[in-house]
Amino acid sequence: MQQRQDHWFRPAAPHSDLAWQQSADGWLRLAVTLDGTTRSGRSSALDPDTAPMREWYDAAPVPPGGSGPEFFSDRIHRLNDLATQGVAANDNPHEDTRGLEAVPVEGLRYGLPSGFPATLGVSRSRDGILLDIPLSTPRGEAVRVMGLGEKTGSLDKRGRTWVMWNCDEPVHSPEKSALYQAHPVVYLWTPGGTVTLFIDTMATVWFDVGEAEPDRLLIEIYDNRFDCYLRTDESLPEAVESYSALTGRIPLPPEWALGFQQCRYSYFPEERVLEVAQKFREERVPCDVLYLDIHYMDGYRVFTWDHRRFPEPDRMVQGLRDQGFRVVTIVDPGVKTDVDYPVFSSGLEKQAFLTRPGGELYVGKVWPGDAAFPDFSRPATREWWARWHKTLFDAGVAGIWNDMNEPADFTGDEVLRVNFTVPDDLVAHNEGEPVSFGRVHNEYANGMNRATRDAFLQYRPEERGFVLTRSGGTGVQRYAAIWTGDNHSWWEHLTMMVPMFLNVGLSGAPFVGGDAGGFQLNADAELYRRWIAAAAFTPFFRAHSALDTRDHEPWSFGPEALETARRFIGIRYRLLPYLYTLFEEASRRGTPVMRPLLWEFPQDPRVASRADSFLLGNALLVAPVREPGVQERSVYLPAGVWYDFWSGERIDVPRQPDGSGAVVVGNAPLDRIPLYLRGGTILPHEGLRQHTGETGDGVLRLLIAPDAEGRAQGTFYGDAGEGFGYCAGRFWRGSFSWDGSGLRTESRAGESGEDLRWTSLATAVCPGTSGELNPEAESLLDLPHGESRLSLPWA
């Protein structure tokens, strides 16, 4: 990782080239090249399908519609903090007991067009560029800063310094900045508009978001060739849609990937895997996926099976498939350096591995011992790696779980985990433009995930495929879902889950989740119940636990915890028509599945940085319980009509003069968390299935929640749930409306609904009474649904 530098001077030709461009779709781009570096059109962060079609106007020395540049000389402050690599962090000179040290800066300051921050300062050091942006507006509005991907802390990232550097950090404590993902994008948000700023590089980037200088965003980019993208939009949803159009969107996942997934480090031998599967079905806890961690391999050699533990993996996998389970196997990038091991020997032959500057093979250590690391920035390496997945696909494996792909290297620094990786001075092929590995460090996992996605296209062309990754950089969402790594069974990590997932979703990667119950250490029954209840409403839903921990399956914490897990996992499955609709929208528009309240209520001053609750789509407000011993919690509801998910009670929240709503007390016994259905929405759902391979009862249910005017509206998308028939028009997407007298279809798309599994439509209207639901109804989903007078629109 590049250390921060403390000598910043004016960028000038011929050693610094700064060029501004504007695109037809509203982006400003500052292209930076240093020291004569050759520029190419390559950027792995940008969507390869849309980037070539984006029209850019001719480069200019001044931002279009802006002014400058003007020379400036200034001093900026930086905190003397080892965690943020501040100036003299190791010397601790105590020149200022506040930990501040002034750094002289010279550079060029540009005036930006209306709607953007007023200015952009540009300075350079020996190895990089410093950007200086004011965190203020002409009207004095408070600027919230969101994005930056997987980070600890709150939804608003102001007041901290954050680094983009992927590393295997096992302790996600609040002061940690570098974790597994690098997404150098921020949204400068006010109720009146949103400015997006994205740094297109895979090298080290530091974001000082008003920590040392409270009203300034200082970005240090340690690369000799990068682009800075800026745009302004009227709203956060528009900004995220524009950003996802730039960097790409998730592929539509198979429906089974939205179901519950159970993992452990590790389930072995075969008998233990089958035991867990059988227990899920006996206990009637829905589940679609079981994982195999590294102990399925022969001596931790990737793309092999340990035939003592798994004598006939294809037979085992098929048996599980017959019970409705898919199997996902872990794959690590470290390849054991054994000349008798075909993966290693073939990689040597194809020059597929990272090398030292002199050309000799680099050998580090991971689980198999001495290991070489594939150079995924080389196309031939990705092709070679993709072909090796055939050994797993031949056994019937349905998904691939890419781990340790920062990449982690056990010969690195076990204390300073940013250095627990391969050396920066290794040589990366970089698509034919060799560079030091440190320049493309954050791209490593993207290349691995891309190769895995190519493997599905090659060997499973009729399936959508499922790839899960721990690490990634900008653009990773095009290839893989994200899980946020090795969390702990701590209440603090249950709390951290919400703002972390929200910011990952805003950063262009909506298919995100974490290890429910916590990976490291042991959850107790209360923590497990609270975690599984909250995680059931997150985009990716998996429970996982580490080696040398107690069992963490739903039945492991007693009958009451089992019933809680059965309830919330069951609700997840009943909501799959709604979830699948949200994922289709994410694949088409980049819209997060899990959203902050300000997404829907930007004019409410009390939700601007709120992350103690979240929205699943636009219809459900979820309020996790985040501390032990709690039987109720306060829940903030924006102005409007809300329905208690459990009692059915209608809550009318008046709009205050400042646009805010009200706080209510949500009942939270151990078998439930506060949930609210938003008035004015229509929630599609269905009967309970034990896995997505079951057909179900064929009834699509629409739960209608009228607003204050008695109206409601909702959208629905359906297709086969697997395969690519939807690309040929075999889907139905439409919206329903309710005006108090009847249900109508407002709009529709798709050529055929023949692949949809529902054969009838049923509706229920939230009663809005102050009493409890009838005794047979556990929640609003259990309201009696009558057959709709509206026939199936796709029939």
Question: How does this structure look, described?
Answer:
This protein has 795 residues and is α+β, with helices and mostly antiparallel strands. Helix content is 17%, strand content 27%. The protein contains twelve helices and 44 strands. The protein has a nine-stranded parallel beta sheet with strand order 27-26-24-21-17-16-15-29-28. Strands 3-4-5-6-13-12-8 form a seven-stranded antiparallel beta sheet, with no helix packed on it. Strands 1-2-14-11-10-7 form a six-stranded antiparallel beta sheet. A hairpin with a 5-residue loop joins strand 34 (640-644) and strand 35. It is globular and about 75 Å long. 54% of the residues are buried. The model is unreliable at 87-91 (pLDDT under 50).
| End-to-end Cα distance | 58 Å
Strand share of the residues? Answer: 25-35%
How are strands sequenced across the largest beta sheet? Answer: 27-26-24-21-17-16-15-29-28
| Total DSSP helices | 12
How is the biggest beta sheet arranged?
Answer: 9 strands, parallel
Helix content: 10-25%
Residue ranges: pLDDT <50 for 5 or more in a row?
Answer: 87-91
Could you tell me the number of beta strands?
Answer: 44
Spatial shape: globular
Write down the overall mean pLDDT. 95
Query: What structural class do you assign from the helix and strand content?
Result: alpha+beta
Radius of gyration: 26 Å
